[in-house]
């Protein structure tokens, strides 16, 4: 594996056109003509998600040749009373007495998918999403997810996280996903890489992404140079990239790094609308920062594995310099395995299973 491209020391800093403005709960800020920014609360340390309203028009389902004016929603928030109340406030104060025409979801994670069923039913609006994300959401909603239960406990134990009290909590997380996404719409319109979706006056190109979720779709338009990046490109935190029990030998970090390369050809003045953090400009700078971040973590892991073999659990203090609770550790473990797997599958590390059944990674002698 060649070194990842380093961040340029001369790269300009990110620019935040709206400075520190944030939309209040249930209200919106117009970030471009016909593009509204909403912000909903989340009950995690990452305490918010950005959602987007796009002015739209679509053929009337019952009147040939008639276009209906309305809105496309991009991402939904989790399903809980507070988020439903916030959407009702948006309905009364932001939608201008126009209907929701469709609900578009970038990917299946709870903060993006949770209320899709409620919004689709409330407005009799179709769900637009990629097949990989729709099917993964259906599995997770039924309890067959990567977020908890016995398979996840066994996966974590194989990578060195065996503390009984922690494993009891992980086992109980089998309800984590359906607790925030209790239902999935029964039908959907498929989004595919390279598709063009006409929304209002703009054509949006679907840009697929992998590593963070099964088949993430970002949206880019040349008309105004706007990228709705979902979780693939965030301004101040690195996107979670994890290995899960269902695909234990996967290489999601390589998939993620390959995927963000698809944003390299975007215009320098592109306004990035991320799912977390503030809208920003500086795609090239942020791509370089993310690549450097992961290269640094890979280098640190290699150095640690020269000293002694490491399990993914052993590697947590190498990758994360702050205390982690059990919820945070579940994501950190996935990240740790992702970085180790990338080095292992590239031949820089050798993996073996010790007498305790734990995978250890050491530097290859070849």
UniProtKB/TrEMBL annotation:
This protein is called what? Zn-dependent hydrolase
Q: Where is the Metallo-beta-lactamase domain?
A: 61-276
Q: Which UniProt keywords apply?
A: Hydrolase
- Protein origin, superkingdom: Bacteria
Q: Does the keyword Membrane apply?
A: no
Pfam families the UniProt entry points to? B_lactamase-like_C, Lactamase_B
Q: Does the keyword Hydrolase apply?
A: yes
PANTHER family, alphabetically? Answer: ENDORIBONUCLEASE LACTB2 (PTHR23131), METALLO-BETA-LACTAMASE SUPERFAMILY POTEIN (PTHR23131:SF4)
Gene3D superfamilies in the record? Ribonuclease Z/Hydroxyacylglutathione hydrolase-like, Winged helix-like DNA-binding domain superfamily/Winged helix DNA-binding domain
List the top taxonomic levels of the source. Answer: Bacteria, Pseudomonadati, Pseudomonadota, Betaproteobacteria, Burkholderiales
- List the GO molecular function terms: hydrolase activity
């Amino acid at each position: 594996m060649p070194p990842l491209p380093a961040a340029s020391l001369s790269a300009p800093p990110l620019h935040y056109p709206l400075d520190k403005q944030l939309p209040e709960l249930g209200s919106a800020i117009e970030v471009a003509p016909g593009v509204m920014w909403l912000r909903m609360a989340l009950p995690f340390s990452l305490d918010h998600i950005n959602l987007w309203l796009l002015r739209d028009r679509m053929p009337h389902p019952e009147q040939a040749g008639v276009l209906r004016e309305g809105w496309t929603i991009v991402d939904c928030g989790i399903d809980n009373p507070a988020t439903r109340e916030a959407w009702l406030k948006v309905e009364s104060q932001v939608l201008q007495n126009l209907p929701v025409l469709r609900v578009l979801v970038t990917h299946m994670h709870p903060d993006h998918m949770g209320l899709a069923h409620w919004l689709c039913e409330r407005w009799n609006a179709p769900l637009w999403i990629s097949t990989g994300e729709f099917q993964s959401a259906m599995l997770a909603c039924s309890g067959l997810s990567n977020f908890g239960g016995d398979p996840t406990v066994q996966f974590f134990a194989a990578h060195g996280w065996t503390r009984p009290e922690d494993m009891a909590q992980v086992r109980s997380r089998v309800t984590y996903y359906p607790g925030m996404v209790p239902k999935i719409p029964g039908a959907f319109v498929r989004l595919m890489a390279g598709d063009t979706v006409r929304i209002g006056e703009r054509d949006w190109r679907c840009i697929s992404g992998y590593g963070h979720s099964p088949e993430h779709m970002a949206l880019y338009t040349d008309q105004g140079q706007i990228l709705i990046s979902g979780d693939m490109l965030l301004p101040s935190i690195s996107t979670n990239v994890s290995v899960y029990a269902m695909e234990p030998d996967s290489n999601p970090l390589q998939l993620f790094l390959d995927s963000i390369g698809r944003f390299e050809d975007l215009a320098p003045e592109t306004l990035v609308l991320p799912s977390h953090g503030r809208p920003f400009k500086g795609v090239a700078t942020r791509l370089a920062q993310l690549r450097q971040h992961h290269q640094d973590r890979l280098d640190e892991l290699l150095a640690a594995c020269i000293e002694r073999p490491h399990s993914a659990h052993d590697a947590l203090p190498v990758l994360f310099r702050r205390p982690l609770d059990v919820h945070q550790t579940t994501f950190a473990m996935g990240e740790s395995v992702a970085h180790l797997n990338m080095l292992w599958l590239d031949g820089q590390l050798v993996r073996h299973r010790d007498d305790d059944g734990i995978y250890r990674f050491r530097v290859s002698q070849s």
